[in-house]
What we know:
Low-confidence stretches of chain B: 1-33
CATH topology of chain B: Transcription Regulator spoIIAA
Number of strands of chain A: 5
Radius of gyration of chain A: 17 Å
Helix content of chain A: 25-40%
Number of strands of chain B: 3
Largest sheet of chain B: 3 strands, parallel
Strand content of chain B: 5-15%
CATH architecture of chain B: 2-Layer Sandwich
Oligomer: heterodimer
Number of helices of chain B: 5
Strand content of chain A: 25-35%
CATH class of chain B: Alpha Beta
Radius of gyration of chain B: 13 Å
Mean pLDDT of chain B: 76
Mean pLDDT of chain A: 87
Number of helices of chain A: 5
Structural class of chain A: alpha+beta
Distance between the termini of chain B: 19 Å
CATH architecture of chain A: 2-Layer Sandwich
Order of helices and strands of chain B: HHEHEHEH
Low-confidence stretches of chain A: 148-158
Largest interface: A-B, 35 and 37 residues
CATH superfamily of chain A: Histidine kinase-like ATPase, C-terminal domain
Distance between the termini of chain A: 49 Å
Number of domains of chain A: 1
Amino acid sequence: MAAEQRTIELQLPSRLGYERVAMEAVGAAAKLMGFHAARVEDLRTAVSEACINAMEHAHQFNAATKVVVALTLGDTSLQIDVADKGKGTPDRIQPPDLTKMFSGEQQVRGWGMFLIKALLDEVQFNVRSDLGNVTRMVIRLEPSDEEHPPTRWAGASRGRV
Amino acid sequence: MKEEEAPSGTEAEDKGRLAHQWERRNHRHDGDLTPEAREAREAVEAAYQRVAASGVRKLVMTFKPDAYISSGGIAVIINIAIAGTKKGQTIRLVQPSEHFQKIFTMVGLRQYVEIFANEGDALAGF
């Protein structure tokens, strides 16, 4: 018998600020599933950036065009699809390079895609689905999610961190 | 002391304190770029320009513990760090969450700014 899957779907206006609704929903689901707090934060940030990309680059912040965020909660994994009506992400994007930004060789931009890829283990761009063009993100429960205590605020330490 | 005023002396501590006071009043941004926060971003950038014009060379930027910082917010911080480097300023960030400390490391920002656990430590010896 197939493992039970539960789905949650959000439709967000393409307007900055609504990505935080997706962040909160994803964060709540991941927390309830037992993911380590640090991984929840990584996921929240990645989903936020995926939503912002969809709102900005696919929908040009046209609030009437919705970004669909679909969460699929499996027994041991959480999949988040962020779908838009755009044409997808260019295959080759120059990765951001802070050194080049400081020297003026590169504009200060491009961190959204960078963060999505850097924070998550499994990311697929330009997945075609009934929802449209999808950025698919998956995190899987690992033993470390149970072994580590919740993240503690660094303010507990002193001095330079 | 108004934020627009130049520091009372040339002591590094005074300058640091000015930046600190400016920070407390004007720069507790949450990185959110919603329309309201876009205004905050512009205010942050304008405040930085005012402080930079006053000759301050040491700045402290304090984050709210629950700050949300999007990639747009990170770009604002990077732009201030770039401008600060060009002006010979030293910038210290205070109490970004562990998550954003990690992100600042990932993007390479920690090569250019220092991070402290609290404002007292950031100002000590600054």
